[in-house]
User: Which sequence fits this backbone?
């Protein structure tokens, strides 16, 4: 076999044929069956065998929901720029992905160069100076697409535009807008967001940084009174940021007014750190090494009085503290509002990443074979194994359902008003936690479904696990967020009880109707009905909310404080938050499926049933609290298996509807034999 | 605040006090309560508050099981050598861990230098030339400890000693032993193990590499007939290995004799690749970048006739094929035997890694506080939250139970004989899959329990997720292994039915007794009894085995082949394999607890109940198949919460019993405020 790198594909094919026939020649006359029956594997593109029964563009429009053209434009920009590391692998196929074999320092350098490129192409035009619902949706769409390339890239952008920028927009007033927004949009000012400290993450209220006011110089003096008060994880602080939002306790005339936000310049035009600051690096992480997370100590660091972001509260030149919001708790809540945009973005991106992993794993499962059922048969395609279908296909249904819910969340976010802040907080918390956990689960399952290939960085799935792991704890720990969801539901419950009024909002209206009754022995078609699916999800939520309220009440009757009672009832709180989130998603999915038509509707109905039944199978609550009989639970399990074989023929069309360009997938999603051929590989 | 790097700890303390008192001074006369109530966080070592009620050395002996001195010796060697990157972080504390910010190429270089160091210190003396049960156990103990430092290091050692070396020992005869074992032990010969191909991983029988015999030259000619036949993932092949075991189909006179193993030299003394070979790199991975995985193509590559590893079968000089084992299936199984040692090592190491992560996360949870229950109270220690206890403490019980089972597996392995090969295969498969899945779960939970700190490479937990992810698919995909366990149990069942004989072996004797009956309403003390725990685990296993056999039989009655029937029954197969594994572990744990005395026995009984009840809570099978009533299931859940608060006071002592040196833990396991202080950090 001539293995020289210059040989063409056709030469290789004929050489291969020659080798085989030589071996077969040696075997001739002895009739070795096993030799004849083990021909070399050849690659068949999944498109050659899989049928498409619906319009994949239509489904893409439904799942992406908006701004498909803007998405494709950003994808093309990244595909065509050498900074995005295009690499030829197998024939004429080119893939883009960061080089994760680079050091932390190199990855940071590449990240900022990619931002500069996108900036020059106008991607961020209007991101801070523009306004309007359409522009915000378009911004979110492009942000999703950039995130498919690299998490570091969007986290660095997110800190700058969605935390720094939004803080100026939301907490600042005209003087801040005029001074900072334009230059920030042009990335001449590079902002960061110094909230978290070494000693306080989720509990922002407990931060220890202290600001006092110096009337003589009309400046605030900011100090880190101790090591635990050092600002920590501040994205951009270690290397590139010029400015930061500083969260600090504000002490005026010895009275603590709680947490406030200030603008501080941390580097001069030459990149030198400003006086009275110390900055250190957070060091190497398991992902996001393209983000320069840093730590900041303030040592009598002074900022002008005008740098207090004063939309909520202000300090007058004479040192008097004034606030439009008298209640310190409400004031504090107002300062956390930008974190909501962070949670929305995280939730949305988690779903997109899951779709990318599924597209890769499903395509590989349609081209990779392993084991024969008997010695005369070819090896079986991975995705033809019932167990492999069970691993991947329910994840597709969840990804589709979550896409629809994510689009709904974005709409609530861009149309936000003071009236919707509670529901925005609840949905963004519930979805952020649920979608990021689901993303980690999806990535792990897809990685294992690809075997060792899932571990190769070039195949993307594995590396995404490290890159996106942070999502479950940043911008609010998932467990804490889910507890907040349950606490909010508990408040709704108590309020409805006290006022003796019906439930209104958050989809809780079903609590006003009689409790649904689930028949003991359901048929397959009953299990696939909207009625059953909706009823059993509502039943679970209602029952868990009542149980939760009752358990908290019992603990309080035993003399525990409300806070302690809630902490002790964490098991039911977790169950309830899950029930609420899944019921909400199901109802959004039901609506979307209703409005579909034709062959797409049939497939969406399969996905809806798959979503509903897999949620039932995975949550022991249904059995534990008797929402389902044993025979119904067994029937659900059987039905999931049937649904897997029903969805199996649509698997390729479904992942092709995710709208992810081929170049953002990976070699194992296409001809992985060719991509691994000697001529496609580097010689040592 | 003077932040100069030269200041001493006492100076820092007094500066801190000065800053605080200055702020308090400003506040005086205004009586700001919130300022007084938020003093800076100070670190208290957990030892200062936590009590130790039992002898931690005694528990360490029980969990490590053997060769504690050899373990400590290897730990010291690594701690004291600069190649292991000792780093001072916080006061006088030094930590050792690889530098994962190094490129793949640098990590490979460090790995081989570390091996050379351990070699020179005599760590590997006797690993290939010695024999005996004690030596083998000592070897396994040292291997576990080296694995705590770095996964790349033991995988590279494992390929050389446990795959290459064991293949020579097991498949080779005197001529191979004499020629290769001594030089391999001295690492003059560096071996690798070329089994897996691009097209065939778990299905070794399907590999496409072909060997034929040339009588004239008395050589085998080895060829990769096509791209999918390239050897893939071959650890050591890309850079360092001089020799390899080659797995290949053997064709003699045109008859295929199935898979055989040959020795081939792949590099000369100067490191040049031998003629008729091509080698390429597998590239960057999400972990194990210190291992040079490579790909090999054979192009009429010739090895002398004597290089066939001929303990099982041989080719005589005249070209005649002779074999002691007539059945090709048995011959094939014999060739896979070294993989068993791989599975034993993987299982054992997974538990050790879990223990390291738990030690870090528990110590952090005992020193980190978040949120106050009311404004007058200090923030709550993470491990005092019921939900945090529920996340971590059951994982301790599982790690302890699995340690005991792992020690049992090692004993079966080192005393192996042809008679025990079946049980060794079953237990090593079941434990490898169960322990590695549990390890990934433990690492994820511990990472999230440490918040963002869990993502910092220096804190180890996060990076271990990427490093150990491979364990769930290498040396046999976990799902495939668990299916094999169930298939083996099915064979036992069918055989007992056919012969009308009682069950014997694999702990299945309980199937011969009457089916246990679980009372419908169990008390707390009943739930904690050995009787209940044993009964309900046996009941589940028995029921699932009968259901599985029945479902497979029904599919066969419908005309499906046995293989197809087994594939379709994957849900019950998964449930059954889990039930078998957990029952086996419980019984080993019960025996160990029975033999303990004094205060340790009390703690071990808590752990046993925790292990049993958490397995029940986590497996929906108990409810789904009616092994437990709803009220018992609810009682189990309540009892898990009680057990968490019972185990909580022992948490520190338990993780301190794991015997892991402080230097192998991480900064957040100790004074993380000091470790993050400016003076402990690098200035930018």
Assistant:
């Amino acid at each position: 076999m001539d293995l020289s790198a210059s040989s063409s594909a056709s030469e290789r094919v004929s050489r291969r044929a020659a080798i085989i026939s030589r071996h077969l020649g040696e075997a001739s006359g002895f009739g070795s069956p096993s030799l004849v029956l083990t021909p070399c594997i050849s690659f068949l593109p999944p498109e050659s065998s899989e049928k498409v029964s619906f319009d994949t563009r239509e489904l893409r429009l439904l799942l992406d929901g908006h701004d498909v053209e803007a998405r494709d434009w950003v994808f093309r920009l990244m595909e065509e720029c050498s900074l995005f590391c295009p690499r030829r692998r197998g024939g004429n196929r080119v893939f883009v992905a960061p080089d994760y074999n680079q050091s932390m320092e190199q990855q940071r350098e590449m990240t900022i160069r990619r931002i500069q490129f996108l900036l020059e192409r106008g991607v961020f035009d209007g991101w801070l100076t523009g306004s309007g619902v359409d522009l915000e949706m378009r911004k979110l769409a492009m942000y999703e697409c950039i995130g498919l390339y690299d998490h570091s890239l969007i986290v660095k952008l997110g800190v700058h535009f969605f935390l720094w920028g939004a803080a100026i927009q939301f907490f600042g007033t005209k003087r801040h807008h005029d001074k900072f927004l334009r230059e920030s949009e042009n990335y001449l000012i590079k902002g960061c967001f110094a909230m978290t400290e070494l000693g306080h993450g989720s509990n922002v209220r407990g931060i220890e940084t202290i600001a006092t006011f110096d009337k003589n110089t009309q400046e605030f003096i900011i100090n880190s009174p101790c090591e635990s008060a050092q600002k920590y994880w501040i994205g951009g602080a270690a290397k590139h940021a010029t400015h930061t939002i500083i969260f600090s306790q504000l002490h005026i005339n010895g009275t603590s007014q709680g947490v406030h936000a200030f603008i501080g310049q941390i580097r001069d035009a030459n990149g030198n750190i400003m006086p009275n600051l110390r900055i250190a690096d957070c060091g190497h992480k398991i992902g996001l090494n393209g983000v320069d997370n840093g730590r900041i100590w303030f040592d009598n660091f002074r900022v002008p009085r005008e740098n207090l972001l004063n939309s909520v509260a202000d300090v007058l030149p004479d040192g008097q503290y004034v606030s439009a919001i008298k209640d310190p708790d409400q004031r504090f809540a107002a300062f956390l509002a930008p974190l909501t945009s962070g949670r929305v973005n995280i939730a949305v991106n988690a779903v997109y990443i899951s779709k990318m992993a599924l597209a890769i794993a499903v395509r590989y499962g349609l081209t990779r074979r392993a084991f024969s059922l008997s010695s005369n048969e070819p090896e079986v395609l991975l995705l033809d194994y019932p167990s492999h279908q069970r691993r991947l296909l329910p994840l597709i249904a969840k990804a589709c359902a979550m896409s629809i819910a994510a689009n709904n969340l974005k709409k609530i976010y861009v149309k936000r008003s003071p009236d919707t802040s509670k529901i925005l907080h609840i949905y963004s918390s519930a979805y952020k936690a649920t979608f990021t956990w689901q993303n980690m689960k999806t990535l792990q399952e897809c990685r294992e479904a690809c075997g060792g290939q899932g571990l190769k960085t070039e195949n993307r799935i594995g590396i995404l696990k490290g890159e996106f792991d942070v999502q479950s704890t940043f911008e609010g720990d998932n467990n804490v967020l889910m507890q907040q969801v349950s606490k909010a539901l508990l408040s709704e419950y108590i309020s409805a009880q006290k006022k003796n009024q019906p439930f209104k909002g958050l989809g809780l209206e079903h609590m006003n109707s009689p409790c649904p009754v689930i028949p003991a022995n359901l048929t397959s078609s009953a299990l696939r009905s909207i009625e059953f699916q909706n009823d059993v999800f509502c039943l679970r939520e209602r029952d868990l909310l009542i149980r939760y309220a009752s358990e908290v009440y019992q603990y309080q009757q035993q003399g525990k404080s409300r806070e302690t009672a809630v902490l002790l009832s964490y098991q039911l709180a977790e169950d309830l938050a899950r029930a609420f989130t899944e019921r909400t998603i199901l109802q959004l999915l039901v609506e979307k499926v209703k409005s579909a038509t034709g062959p797409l509707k049939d497939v969406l109905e399969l996905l809806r049933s798959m979503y509903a039944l897999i949620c039932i199978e995975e949550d022991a609550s249904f059995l534990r609290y008797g929402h389902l009989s044993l025979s119904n639970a067994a029937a659900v399990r059987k039905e999931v298996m049937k649904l897997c074989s029903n969805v199996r023929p649509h698997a390729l069309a479904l992942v092709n509807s995710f709208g992810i360009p081929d170049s953002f997938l990976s070699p194992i999603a296409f001809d992985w034999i060719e991509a691994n051929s000697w001529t496609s590989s580097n010689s040592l």
